[in-house]
Specification:
about 160 residues; mainly alpha
Length: about 160
């Protein structure tokens, strides 16, 4: 049986010793929700992104640099005239240059202008997945058969 659950007569210790050993006292606990005061304080700007489910990145320069380089390597495997490669390579190269040349996170966010660095990391991860899928899909290759003449007409042809 835990010593805190035993009656005082069974514990064989002085009352002063018991009070000093109590896990919580009224001076260090908010009894409305039973939480110590240090846990009630609002986190600082470096502790939260303010976006649910998105944790603060500890090393955003490093993470973004690695992701952008992986995307660029995937794009290098595509033909140079592929539309996806041309436009994505331009955007990712510019972002990689910004990450390499800026020293603070706020400068990266302001220069790229597409959200917080944590959002940029999610965007880069998604772009890397898409680039790898595009390598498998090979949209730059010609169609197996010709498209119907009214493929893009709306409403559909009768």
């Amino acid at each position: 049986m835990d010593r805190w659950l035993k009656p005082a007569s069974v514990r064989k210790c002085k009352l002063t010793e018991t009070l000093s050993e109590l896990p919580c006292t009224s001076s260090d606990t908010d009894w409305t929700n039973n939480t110590p005061p240090q846990q009630l304080q609002e986190p600082g700007p470096e502790q939260t992104t303010g976006l649910t489910g998105l944790v603060v990145s500890k090393h955003p320069h490093h993470t973004l640099g690695i992701l952008y380089n992986k995307i660029l390597r995937s794009l290098q495997k595509m033909p140079s005239n592929a539309a996806y490669r041309k436009y994505t390579e331009k955007i990712i190269s510019e972002r990689a240059r910004i990450v390499e040349t800026t020293s603070t996170v706020s400068e990266i966010e302001n220069n790229i202008g597409c959200g917080q660095v944590e959002e940029l990391i999610v965007q880069a991860e998604n772009e890397l997945v898409l680039a790898r899928k595009m390598l498998g899909w090979k949209p730059w290759e010609p169609l197996v058969q010709d498209a119907t003449p009214h493929q893009w007409a709306w409403p559909p042809a009768k």
